Amino acid sequence: MNNPERTLITNKESGLLFDYFFGRIEKDQINHGSVLIASNPKAAEIYSCIKQTLAQLEHMKDENCPDELVDMTIARLKLAAVKEPLSYQYGRQ
User: Fold this and answer.
1) What pLDDT, on a 0 to 100 scale, did the predictor assign at position 89?
2) Domains in the chain: boundaries
3) 43 with 36: CB under 8 angstroms?
């Protein structure tokens, strides 16, 4: 965050915005999330979109996911990871 006028955010900062929204953030990173949102227009836009999109889910009733669906989803994710690792898929290491 050396340049407060920059408009791009890193993958790590993007993850921080999600963690910040869900309150799943380390205490020492709360200030970093607040500063990022306040100082970076792109981060503020992304955070606003997260809030608008996910706020609608607050009205939904929580339901348990069937074990079979969980097992099947995990198996598919493992298979996809073996076939096409994320680092290759997104052109990153």
Assistant:
1) 47
2) 1-60, 63-93
3) yes
